Amino acid sequence: MSGLKLDRRDGVLTITLSRPDRLNAVDGALTEEMLDVLNGLMRDPETRVVVLTGEGRGFCSGMDIQGDPGTDGDAAREGRVQRLYRGIANGGEVTARLREIPQPVIAALRGPVAGMGVSWALACDLRVADPTTRFVVPFTDLGLSAGDCGLSWLLPRLVGPARAAEICYRAQRLDATRALGLGLLTEIVEEGGDVAGAHALADELLTKSPYGLRRTKELLNMALDAPGLRRQLAAETGVQTLAFFSEDLAEGMAATLQKRRPEFRNR
User: Fold this and answer.
1) How far apart are CA 17 and CA 10, in angstroms?
2) Known Pfam families for this protein (predicted)?
3) Total-model pTM
């Protein structure tokens, strides 16, 4: 893969956006590669946790506008519209897939997290950042809408509608400290330690029940769109009832009583 690097070990897949000369700006090829990897994870019982990071001094600088072939003045206007639409739609599809894959996804962040990169980072389940991290939501300064690749759906659910409006309307930049205070980050680690911190968190998740993690992610996502408490209660009841018939429940209870780490087998 030209725009991604993949590293698989011990149940953890690390996906690295690898266009460091462009601050990992997202072009069409990188988006297609991301979708291929994420679609494969939908059917991958061996990968239990995913870490998403960027190579070099930043996580992602957003959509690669300079790389848009339609910026050439001689390009047909209709052709450019189609290319832009496809690029933006595919970027949003990556956001959706990060939410939909059964594995918990941990973002390892440093430096600029801008534009489409913000949406991808917020689509992850957990976010570990170093102190250089800064979220950049520049859209209204550029003449664009902040409704970009899922941002207008994700941000209000993480920080509340009033804070989301302030950030988007004012095209704010959020440093790591403020992002942590708003609930956008799981933790801040030492400078340069974002990937190691994300892997430490991944190792912790590997000690948990695979069934429990996958179904918990599924239920948390369902809750974001649930029409009401009773619909969510019905979903929870089905998932929890099945869990009582798994070998992992007996193992988890025995390990708790024996004060040892459980050895879960169910996927």
Assistant:
1) 21
2) ECH_1
3) 0.91
